[in-house]
Design goal:
Strands 1-2-3-5-4 form a 5-stranded mixed sheet, with helices on one face. Helix 1 packs antiparallel against helix 2. 66% of the residues lie in helices and 14% in strands. By secondary structure, it is an alpha+beta fold. It is elongated, with a radius of gyration of 27 Å. The protein has 2 domains: 108 residues; 133 residues, Heat Shock Protein 90.
């Protein structure tokens, strides 16, 4: 029987080839795991948005209308029985009416915060304008909004992502920064969208970032990572804060194809 002699070089080549195969399998499994985790996060956010939409609809269509009817009934009673109601009672009734009006307004604001009809039907620019006007009115912060070169080709998922990031960032500015002015800029840069949100507030050191933003920071990071994006925060005490976010326009398409490939090989 003939004896087959394998040289040392052949052993090395076989071992190298086997190592490449093992590393390739490990990389594929890691990518598959990351994609599954990303798809799970995407699904959870979609469920969350649907729940937001349902709650917002109930607040607006049910509770909001019922409050409006209660207010109208009280106004009718106050008008019809005005001569029979004493001065102090009139003051109390007017106070109740004002309280109901304020509650109705707050409920409407909460409904819009949970789900933006402008974003759903009109797109990102009108929705961001609405947020900026709301923050300006409630917190007396002058906000400049600039949006250039977006066109009509922005996927809905990216619009929702940037909208929620802007919403959280402006909330943090109003709550923590003590700013008098802020700016929101969204531009198309090649195959990516870039958003910058800055303020002239008190700022903070980088070690305080997590304490300042808390769960909001984690939410922004999670939303952006799902669509293949990311963000950076630059802040200096006494010199304001800048949040820069970027999202590739091709992220949704690439993620969908990669997910199809991993499902095919599952």
């Amino acid at each position: 029987m003939a004896t087959i002699h394998i040289s040392l070089e052949a052993y090395i080549l076989i071992a190298a080839f086997a190592l490449i195969i093992v590393l390739g399998i490990q990389m594929f499994m890691r990518m598959k795991s990351e994609l599954r985790s990303r798809e799970l996060s995407r699904h959870l956010i979609q469920v969350q948005e649907e729940e937001r939409k349902c709650v917002a609809r109930e607040l607006h269509d049910d509770f909001g209308q019922r409050l409006a009817l209660v207010k109208l009934d009280l106004e009718d009673v106050l008008q019809e029985e005005l001569s029979m109601v004493g001065g102090s009672a009139q003051v109390r009734l007017h106070g109740i009416l004002c309280g109901i009006g304020k509650l109705s307004s707050d409920m409407q604001h909460l409904s819009h915060t949970l789900h933006s009809g402008r974003l759903q039907y009109l797109g990102l620019k009108p929705a961001l304008k609405e947020i900026c006007r709301t923050v300006e009115r409630q917190y007396h912060i002058a906000i400049e909004l600039q949006m250039d070169g977006l066109g009509n080709a922005v996927p809905k998922e990216l619009e929702l992502c940037l909208y929620r990031v802007a919403q959280e960032a402006l909330h943090n500015i109003a709550k923590h920064s003590g700013a008098g002015r802020a700016a929101v800029t969204v531009v198309k840069d090649g195959d990516a969208l870039r958003m910058a949100i800055s303020d002239d507030g008190k700022g903070f050191s980088q070690t305080e970032t997590s304490q300042q933003l808390g769960l909001g920071l984690a939410s922004m990071r999670e939303r952006l990572s799902i669509v293949g994006g990311g963000f950076q925060i630059q802040s200096t005490p006494g010199r304001g804060t800048l949040l820069s976010a970027q999202v590739p326009l091709t992220a949704i398409r690439k993620t969908s194809r990669a997910h199809w490939l991993t499902r095919r090989h599952a």
